[in-house]
Description:
By secondary structure, the protein is mainly beta.
Amino acid sequence: MKKFLVAxxxxxxxxxxxxxxKSLWVDxxxxxxxxxxxxxxxxxILTIVINESTTQTAAKSRTNSKSGSINVSTGTGIFDFIKxxxxxxxxxxxxxxxxxxxxxxxGQITVTVVEVLPNDNMIVEGVQSIWQNRDExxxxxxxxxxxxxxxxxxxVPSTRVADASIKFDGKGPLNAKQRQGILTxxxxxxx
Length: 191
């Protein structure tokens, strides 16, 4: 009976194939069971917290003036036809201008990692489209994020996105009313 059990065990072992040991950890990763899930690979998502403000002020002043005069006395000899005269002229130009522009943009957009660079920086991009009363508001973002800048909440402040391109655009009836009409644009070109 003992020989029979050994033979059955040997047959089962031979025909069962080889067995592999599988790891409980993520292959190629260093994440533990207690670590936060942060974006790190192509296809992962993370949220960019946009908090941008810009202020631009310009003031210009230009002044230009010139003047000139000429005096001619009466001619003599063959030039006696020249009568005495004097002339003067002047030109003045002055222009002043100021411009001030302040922009503030606050929001959030969830983006996808589209490429991981050799230095482990991630190229991210995403588009968010919000429709409200037939008006579309669209946020487009593309940039480079360092893995170290991803917080434990899987967010990154927009001030930490390198080569950032953040575009806020809209279309619809309300946005169309905020643009200049064709005649106004034509007058701006001509004058």
